[in-house]
Amino acid sequence: MTTNYRTSRRQFLGGMAAGSAGLLFSADNRAAGYQSPNERPVFATIGLRNQGWAITKKSTKFANFAALADVDAKVLEANVKKVEKRQGKKPDSYKDYRKVLDRKDIDAVMIATPDHWHTKIAVEAMLAGKDVYCEKPLTLTIEEGKLIEKVLKQTGRVFQVGTMQRTESGQRFLKAIALVRAGRIGTVKKITCGIGGFGPSPKIPVIAVPESLDWDFWLGPAPKVPYRALPEIRKGYGGGVPLYSNCHYAFRNWHEYSGGKLTDWGAHHVDIACWAIGASDTGPSKVTPVNYEMAVEYKDGHPLVDDQYNIATKFNIRADMPGDVELLITNEGDNGILFEGTKGRFFVNRGKIVGKPVDDLKDNPLPGDAIEEIYGGPVAKNHTANFIDGMKSRKQPISDVRSHNRMLEICHLANIAMRLNRELKWDPAKREIVGDPEASSFLSRENRKGYEINM
């Protein structure tokens, strides 16, 4: 039996249909958004470990959570208790996300599964009439991004991607974009995105699947393989699970499920770089693996072993961007973005923004509306607040699907280039690899039988 979390569906949907600018809250009021029980939308979260809990926790300010779904019973049970404590009402729980999508009382889903599940769930959620908040990176392949765009246009849903640097981090990244747009470093010549790197793994043996985990369902669209893990436990963020495995936090180290640091931190910093130079609706002409190291040996773009991490561990990737801008993505140096132009340079990350152009703001500040002009209005208190505003106005949020896909194409192409050990030419208008059929075959992947996308 499900619990009725709908206090006034007619009132909320009526507000969404209105779609006027007056429906948006002011920046001062957004943190208290939709506090009225007659206006709060009903949410569900699919995928609850780590970031799944993080986005759920901060979203309980704005929405009632009617349901949670996860393929790990232990994770599911723990998060049901945490949500119940925060909102005073116990959400329903499911192993199978499809039961969430079947519910008519749920307005939106938040997706925080491993990357290889994002597209299937997002597409099916939109077709089920749900708005979607999906963690980054949105897709596992470039063709998945095009499919999401197609279904988004078809359904008219509101879709926010979880690249929260566009909204949060003390507005440092918005200030960085404003500095670039205001010409404070002259003509941009080079942008370096430092995204860190994952290390290699030892050989990881096949062991028994944890009792609480439905391993086949966790794999879902990915190829069927045995569960692997070593005894050592990860500490810190994402801790409490095996440090070395082909599941849990470590899924990011396997091309079957993710894209390593290129689609992990790259999805954040390359996004800001492209936004700053006005390249959110285009792409590179060429992507070149200057130098790199893979965790294991590859042949014809595929790893030769299946018991070790297989992503790139070290890399310097160059993307030739419009306006003769060189975009460098590297595992070296400080995590953050270095902007270099004909008149100066500065560095920004989540903790700081430094450099002479920043120091010069003391005597020559940016215009008072510079940040809001970049953001398209008052900056939301957090990324979820911006999503809720979009649900209300029926306008796409600040981290929209198309701009996310365009910048993520650079990250996907970088991984393909390293797997094949050659530069790739890219047609940003057609969104195609030029003259390389083998490389083009990596633009999509076939879902495992039984886990096809239900259209």
Q: What do you see in this structure?
A:
By secondary structure, the chain is α/β, with parallel strands linked by helices. It has two domains: 9-167 and 386-393, 3-Layer(aba) Sandwich (Rossmann fold); 171-374 and 401-443, 2-Layer Sandwich (Dihydrodipicolinate Reductase, domain 2), CATH 3.30.360.10. Helices cover 31% and strands 18% of the residues. It is built from 15 helices and 17 strands. The chain has helices at residues 9-18, 51-59, 73-87, 98-101, 115-127, 142-155, 172-181, 215-219, 260-264, 266-276, 356-359, 370-375, 383-393, 401-420, 437-440; strands spanning 42-46, 64-69, 92-94, 108-111, 131-134, 159-161, 188-194, 286-294, 298-299, 302-303, 312-321, 325-330, 336-341, 344-348, 353-354, 424-427, 432-433. The chain has a nine-stranded mixed sheet with strand order 15-14-13-7-12-11-8-16-17. A six-stranded parallel sheet has the order 3-2-1-4-5-6, with helices on both faces. The protein has a two-stranded antiparallel sheet with strand order 9-10. Strand 9 and strand 10 (302-303) form a beta hairpin. Helix 5 (115-127) runs parallel beside helix 6, helix 6 runs antiparallel to helix 14 and helix 10 (266-276) crosses helix 14 (401-420). The radius of gyration is 22 Å and the shape is globular. Mean pLDDT is 93; it is low at 7-35.
